[in-house]
Design brief:
With 367 residues, this protein is mainly α. The protein has helices spanning 13-33, 42-49, 53-77, 82-110, 128-131, 141-163, 169-194, 200-208, 216-224, 232-254, 264-277, 282-285, 291-296, 298-315, 322-355; strands at 6-7, 11-12. It has a two-stranded antiparallel sheet with strand order 1-2. A hairpin with a 3-residue loop joins strand 1 and strand 2.
């Protein structure tokens, strides 16, 4: 798939920068949610209040990286090894997830919360984004979207192969990506026409957190996984992608169709960056040398920083300046994510690599 700049540990360098940017934006969003930035300048609060777009960046990256793995396997072998693929994904994501789930559940026992755990069993099989969105572990909805994507995508590609036996791998992947995008737009149109989205709980359950309404970023990343190496044509295509989505978003907002515009700017922008980075990922990595470290901790940070923020809020008195409390919360998040990376994630990855076939060079998601 063209030239690739690699870093130690079988990573795509430029994508580390995007992942680091995404998790930083998510952390800023939770700083705002936990009221650490209430006394900050208006510009800072504005940036933090839109930090949820970092999740959309993660979705595009997941679509690209997982799509890249499956696309190359389809192209090379003509099929997909489901057992190997699923186990590699689960060994990467499940140990840290279940450890955090246990930690949050234990915290709820020690410090009882007003919000009950609705359908607790749903958290064991990643269905809480449909059944239990309002709990103490509510940020895990995005992990449900990704796990459901990991489960369904190879099956969809195998089904597409059976429906179109003579089609090339690139055609099959693009068909699935287009279908996923259309499903999301259709689902959002339906939600906008039938749901009372002024109610936060209904908004989360019927639009924001449910997988069938959040496939657009994954679809853009999946399509980008089939593209050739860097060229001026793809930079132009990226600019048109952002420009087209910006105009379309403005038009839909003018017509009152907010559900169709939700998060599209972040997904389109990340898709455009992917197009620009396909052949020259080291361009951004060279300018942000700490990106690889932040990227390695991104999964642990996503899981643990709301917990660290809650503990920090309870541990530090309100008389401590908000900026000091914010830095303490971030430091606690980084330390806990580093401990999880070293103590749980890396041992699980080493075990995975002993038990299952290694993925193609350049296709790794950071583990």
């Amino acid at each position: 798939m063209g030239r690739e700049a690699m870093t130690p540990g079988n990573r795509l360098a430029g994508l580390d920068t995007l992942r680091a940017w995404a998790i930083t934006w998510v952390v800023l969003a939770h700083l705002d949610e936990h009221r650490f930035v209430d006394a900050s300048p208006a510009a800072v609060r504005l940036i933090c209040s839109h930090g949820s777009a970092g999740v959309d960046v993660f979705f595009v990256l997941s679509g690209f990286l997982i799509g890249r793995i499956l696309y190359r396997e389809l192209e090379r072998a003509g099929g997909i090894g489901l057992r190997n693929f699923w186990w590699r994904r689960w060994m990467r994501t499940l140990p840290a997830y279940y450890a955090t789930l246990a930690l949050v559940a234990l915290g709820g026992v020690v410090i009882p919360r007003h919000t009950p755990w609705e359908h607790p069993w749903a958290y064991l099989i990643f269905l809480q984004n449909y059944l239990s969105i309002g709990s103490s572990f509510n940020w895990s909805w995005s992990l449900c979207v990704e796990e459901q994507f990991y489960l369904a995508l190879p099956l969809l590609l195998i089904g597409a192969r059976k429906l179109f036996p003579g089609a090339r791998a690139v055609t099959l992947v693009r068909i699935v990506a287009l279908a996923a995008f259309v499903v999301t737009l259709s689902a959002r149109m339906h939600a906008g026409a039938t749901a009372d989205l002024s109610d936060w709980d209904k908004y989360m359950r019927e639009l924001y957190a449910v997988t069938h309404c959040r496939l657009d970023g994954l679809a853009i990343g999946l399509f980008a996984a089939t593209l050739p190496a860097f060229s001026l044509q793809w930079v132009t295509a990226g600019a048109l992608l952002v420009g087209g989505f910006t105009c379309w978003t403005a038009m839909m907002l003018g017509l009152g169709w907010r559900p169709l515009t939700e998060n599209l700017f972040a997904t389109a922008g990340t898709g455009a960056l992917l197009l620009a980075l396909l052949g020259r990922p080291s361009w951004m990595a060279a300018r942000f040398p700490g990106a690889a470290f932040v990227s390695e901790l991104s999964y642990g940070l996503y899981l643990l920083q709301p917990v660290a923020f809650e503990v920090t809020m309870r541990a530090l008195p309100t008389t401590v300046p908000s900026l000091v409390r914010a830095f303490a919360a971030i430091a606690a998040s980084v330390v806990s994510a580093y401990a999880m990376r070293r103590g749980l994630e890396l041992p699980a990855l080493r075990l995975r690599d002993r038990l299952f076939i290694e993925e193609p060079v350049g296709a790794t998601t950071g583990g």
